[in-house]
Design goal:
With about 140 residues, this protein is of the alpha+beta class. The chain has one domain: 2-Layer Sandwich (Muramoyl-pentapeptide Carboxypeptidase, domain 2), CATH 3.30.1380.10. Helix content is about 35%, strand content about 20%. The protein has a 6-stranded mixed β-sheet. A hairpin with a 3-residue loop joins β3 and β4.
């Protein structure tokens, strides 16, 4: 099911961990609404780079989120976050470009210098926080 021109429900709900462990990763109707908002937001990110986003994680049920060691407050569980890479670009360069662009993200996080986490507010119409962070072996800090 297409959520936006370039993103599908299947793409934003697929989980290797869920598949391997037989965990249910089916979103509720509320989460599907959030995933649609997320998909249209991701279109802005895709347009910024003029390249496909390689999504590694989108929605995670609470069970899947726990299995992958995700935060208990993860926006992934609300259908409001995705982890991705852009082919041919370092995650650092991707985060820098997003921070420098006028895109209304809630959080953008450079994670372990290996992928980018991006999120939208969990409440439709809420003002995005525009938090730019780094998470790695040294902990969590502001992206500068």
């Amino acid at each position: 099911m297409k959520l936006s021109p370039n993103f599908s429900l299947e793409e934003l709900t697929f989980s290797q961990v869920a598949s391997r462990r037989g965990l249910n990763n089916t979103p509720s109707d509320k989460v599907k609404d959030n995933l649609e908002r997320l998909a249209f937001f991701l279109e802005q990110i895709r347009k910024l780079f003029n390249k496909p986003l390689l999504i590694s994680s989108g929605y995670r049920s609470r069970e899947v989120n726990e299995a992958v060691g995700g935060s208990k407050t993860s926006q992934h569980c609300e259908g409001c976050a995705a982890d991705f890479n852009v082919k041919g670009m370092s995650p650092n360069a991707v985060v820098r470009a997003i921070v420098d662009a006028n895109i209304p993200y809630d959080q953008v996080i450079l994670e372990f210098d290996s992928w980018v986490h991006i999120s939208i507010p969990t409440v439709k119409g809420a003002t995005p926080r525009k938090q730019a962070l780094i998470i790695d072996n040294k902990g969590k800090r502001e992206f500068k």
